[in-house]
């Protein structure tokens, strides 16, 4: 897909769902190595200092080491490398839930949100999450499975959001520069190099921070405290139980003491001491109100993650032995998704229809039923279900894109193209929607619109060469009217200008 683009539409998702990692290092990827090296001490030093320096002023940031625009660009490059090299889960329903939860937290945070956030699910069993520059938040499937409720998952995300809004990467770089360690700027290059070669990335990062471990230790602890405090406030402002943060970290810490060989990765990248847990517990006790801990949406989301990332036969077998599975909507949903993955669509449809009847307004259940109906060559019925859902939740991107896919499967490409074109009018571009638009345009015979949409798709990825190539291909199509040609030429000029600006940063 990254080679010279032609008239053929690339695969419908940037990166397929990955169920097994190629990298034998347990999540020892460049991004995580970089963030751990910048913010955190070696694990052996995690408890060597009892005193923590005062928190930096909330919202304090550095523009000397890394400007806002540089961080945005770095975040986009890191996002592309994550997609290339890490097993990103490409499931629209799961991604929509996580992004929705993240957006709720962003809407309610009291901090200045400078970046356009991206929330990703990494198909990796380690209990971990990390924040990358520019608003990239990644959560492992292992952490999702370990979370007991929505508040615990939200606590981790709120904590990671705080690392970004408080610009901890820029502030660490600035602090390191004051210590006479300009080589830490070189460490930013290891974001990309370390993903390609984890051992090389680790060595490079180790060399850049050598000799300043104690100073970095003090700052990393201050940043963790700051992220805890801000994250907890964000939880409360969102209506989620603020005690979930301390509770989840305490549970993970307890697991680490039970079996030192299975220390959750989250504790390696976010060291948790007894003092930190106690401080979080004391802080959370100051909040009073009727806070939410869980939701049906989270229970279904977690069930879906399990069903998508574990062998379907094993999931089905476990649920068969579970005495309460028939009474638990999440367990029944998990079984339905596993049955569908095993090719047993009729059984899956029976379960999903019953769940949909019990919860007719659930987006996840309705869209899941529509997806399985489409797989069972009953796309017309899927279209009817999704049109009803669109009436309940007008203009929601997840519903619109699901309906467009069902329309494509039913052979109604022109309706899918019209639906997506109307929905995108006046909205910020999204790479996944642009790709689907290109697919719908091609299927409806509009090759110029297809290549133009693909060009916009590549622009969203920051890949200007293939974007310009798509415009060139569009210009070669016949017939082409004067207005369309002028628009395409203007778009080609804009792409070249954007590429030049990015290269100068």
Automatic annotation (TrEMBL):
UniProt keyword Hydrolase present: yes
Entry-linked InterPro entries: Mito/Outer_Membr_Metalloprot (IPR051156), Peptidase_M48 (IPR001915), TPR-like_helical_dom_sf (IPR011990)
Domain annotation Peptidase M48: ranges: 93-280
Superkingdom, taxonomy of origin: Bacteria
GO BP terms: proteolysis involved in protein catabolic process
Pfam families: Peptidase_M48, TPR_19
Key words, A-Z: Hydrolase, Metal-binding, Metalloprotease, Protease, Zinc
Cofactor(s) required, per the database record: Zn(2+)
Positions of the UniProt region annotated as Disordered: 1-21
Single annotated GO MF: metalloendopeptidase activity
The keyword Nucleus is annotated on this UniProt entry: no
GO cellular component term of the entry, any: membrane
Signal peptide positions on this chain: none
Annotated PANTHER family: METALLOENDOPEPTIDASE OMA1, METALLOENDOPEPTIDASE OMA1, MITOCHONDRIAL
Protein name as annotated: Peptidase M48 domain-containing protein
Organism annotation: Acidihalobacter yilgarnensis
Taxonomy of the source species: Bacteria, Pseudomonadati, Pseudomonadota, Gammaproteobacteria, Chromatiales
């Amino acid at each position: 897909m990254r080679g010279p683009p032609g008239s053929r539409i690339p695969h419908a998702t940037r990166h397929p769902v990955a169920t097994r990692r190629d990298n034998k290092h347990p999540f020892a990827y460049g991004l995580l190595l970089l963030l751990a090296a910048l913010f955190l001490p070696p694990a052996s030093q995690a408890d060597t200092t009892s005193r923590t320096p005062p928190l930096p002023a909330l919202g304090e940031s550095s523009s000397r080491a890394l400007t806002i625009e540089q961080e945005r660009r770095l975040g986009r490059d890191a996002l592309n490398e994550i997609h290339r090299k890490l097993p990103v889960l490409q499931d629209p329903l799961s991604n929509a839930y996580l992004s929705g939860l993240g957006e709720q937290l962003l809407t309610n945070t009291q901090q200045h949100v400078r970046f356009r956030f991206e929330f990703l699910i990494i198909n990796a069993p380690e209990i971990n999450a990390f924040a990358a520059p520019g608003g990239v938040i990644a959560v492992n499937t292992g952490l999702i499975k370990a979370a007991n409720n929505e508040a615990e998952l939200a606590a981790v995300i709120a904590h990671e959001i705080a690392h970004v809004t408080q610009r901890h990467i820029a502030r660490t770089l600035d602090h390191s520069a004051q210590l006479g360690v300009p080589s830490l700027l070189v460490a930013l290059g290891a974001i990309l190099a370390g993903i390609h070669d984890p051992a090389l990335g680790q060595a490079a990062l180790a060399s850049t921070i050598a000799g300043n471990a104690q100073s970095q230790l003090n700052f990393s602890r201050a940043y963790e405290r700051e992220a805890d405090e801000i994250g907890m406030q964000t939880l409360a402002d969102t209506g989620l139980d603020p005690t979930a943060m301390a509770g989840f970290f305490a549970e993970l810490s307890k697991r680490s003491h039970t079996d030192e060989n299975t220390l959750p990765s989250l504790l390696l990248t976010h060291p948790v001491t007894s003092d930190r847990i106690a401080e979080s517990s004391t802080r959370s006790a100051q909040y009073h109100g009727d806070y939410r801990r869980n939701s049906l949406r989270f229970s279904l989301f977690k069930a879906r993650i399990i069903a998508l990332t574990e062998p379907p036969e094993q999931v089905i077998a476990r649920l068969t032995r579970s005495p309460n599975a028939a009474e638990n909507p999440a367990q029944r949903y998990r079984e339905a998704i596993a049955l569908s993955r095993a090719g047993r669509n009729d059984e899956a449809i029976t379960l999903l229809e019953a769940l949909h009847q019990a919860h007719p307004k659930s987006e996840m259940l309705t869209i899941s039923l529509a997806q399985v109906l489409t797989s069972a060559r009953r796309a017309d019925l899927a279209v009817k279900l999704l049109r009803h859902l669109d009436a309940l939740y007008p203009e929601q991107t997840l519903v619109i894109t699901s309906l467009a896919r069902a329309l494509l499967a039913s052979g109604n490409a022109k309706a899918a193209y019209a639906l997506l074109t109307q929905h995108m009018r006046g909205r910020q571009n999204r790479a996944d929607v642009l790709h689907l638009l290109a697919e719908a345009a091609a299927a409806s015979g509009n090759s110029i619109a297809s290549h133009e949409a693909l060009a916009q798709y590549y622009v969203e990825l920051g890949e200007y060469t293939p974007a310009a190539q798509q415009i060139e291909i569009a210009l070669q199509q016949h017939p082409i009217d004067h207005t369309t040609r002028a628009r395409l030429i203007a778009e080609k000029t804009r792409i070249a200008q954007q590429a030049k600006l990015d290269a100068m940063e």
